Amino acid sequence: MTNFFTAAVLSACTLGMVACNQGKANKVTSTTDSSSTTTVTTTTTTSAEPAKATGKMASNAEIMARKQVPVLCYHQIRDWRASDSKSAKDYIVQIAAFKEHMKMLADSGYHTILPDQLYNYLTTGAALPAKPIMLTFDDTDLDQFTIANPELKKYGFKGVYFVMTVSIGRPHYMNKEQIKQLADEGNVIGSHTWDHHNFKKFQGKDWETQIDKPTKKLEEINGKKIEYFAYPFGLWNEQGLPELHKRGFKAAFQLAEKRDANDPLMTIRRILDSGYWSAKTLSNSIRNSF
Ligand SMILES: [Zn+2]
């Protein structure tokens, strides 16, 4: 059962990689789009004086015009096994590499931010720390708790953990107590559906099974409201976005595809930190992708 499930998630991730690669093709467009605003927004994000936070909600056009904050996406943090496929290794960052990548971020002066900070920056222009970055972890893998979290703590970093509730407590996945501990330590728990089905295909009762019930379960575990969502495989469609708004989500995270200009909060971009990347490659990708 576990093997089947792992295989399902990994093959799922291969699909996600397709989305990610497509996103890379879009990168040129988005870089061009944001180039005219780069100077202004750099000032906004790094200036010592507070950015203009008017309290008024920004329009979608204003949100699109702000400089994007880099968001990284991780899955498994463990050493490769002989059985790992070439494509699976994109999703498995080896332990030594993960440690180097976190050290590079700290040495480069990056500060991790949490979804509320990103939401406030996007919607009101609220100030962010210098060199802001968000670290997100999908799929509930246990090594995120045992390997990644202690590494983040070394640098005072916080993370966002997008949990699929079906796997809670299964072998190699986090249990309720571990998820609660992450939340209690100041990290944020978000929803990643019940069992990782394609959001684009949700209909009828799926909204209850894949969204409502997992939200309720995660809120029971954490004693906190669940307000952020990550799409399985990074896949989303325009028609589904109102369903997330209706349920009170403040923002949702995809992979590296272009954002929906009519709903940028529900299509925030992330890049995968690939298992093949050196710290240098990651550093360049962060600068080039957002
Ligand atoms: Zn996932």
Topology, element by element:
Blueprint: H1 2-35, H2 38-46, H3 60-65, E1 71-74, E2 76-77, E3 92-93, H4 95-107, E4 111-112, H5 115-124, E5 132-138, H6 143-154, E6 160-163, H7 176-184, E7 188-191, H8 206-222, E8 228-230, H9 241-246, E9 251-253, E10 271-272, H10 279-289
Helix pairs in contact: 4-6, 4-10
This protein binds zinc ion.
Write a short abstract of this structure.
The protein is of the alpha/beta class. It has 10 helices and 10 strands.
- How many beta-strand elements? 10
Average pLDDT taken over every residue: 87
CATH class: Alpha Beta
Helical residues, percent: 40-55%
User: What is the string of SSEs from the N terminus onward?
Assistant: HHHEEEHEHEHEHEHEHEEH
Bound molecules: zinc ion
Share in β-strands: 5-15%
Please report the number of helical segments: 10
Shape: globular
- Provide the number of structural domains: 1
Radius of gyration: 18 Å
What low-confidence regions span 5 or more consecutive residues with pLDDT below 50?
1-51
3D structure, described in words:
The strands form 3 sheets. Strands 1, 4, 5, 6, 7 and 10 form a 6-stranded parallel sheet that branches. Strands 2-3 form a two-stranded parallel sheet. It is globular. It is 44% helix and 11% strand. The protein has helices at residues 2-35, 38-46, 60-65, 95-107, 115-124, 143-154, 176-184, 206-222, 241-246, 279-289, and strands spanning 71-74, 76-77, 92-93, 111-112, 132-138, 160-163, 188-191, 228-230, 251-253, 271-272. Helix 4 (95-107) runs parallel beside helix 6 and helix 4 crosses helix 10. It has 10 helices and 10 strands. The protein is of the alpha/beta class. It has one domain (2-289): Glycoside hydrolase/deacetylase (TIM Barrel, Alpha-Beta Barrel). The structure holds zinc ion (ZN).
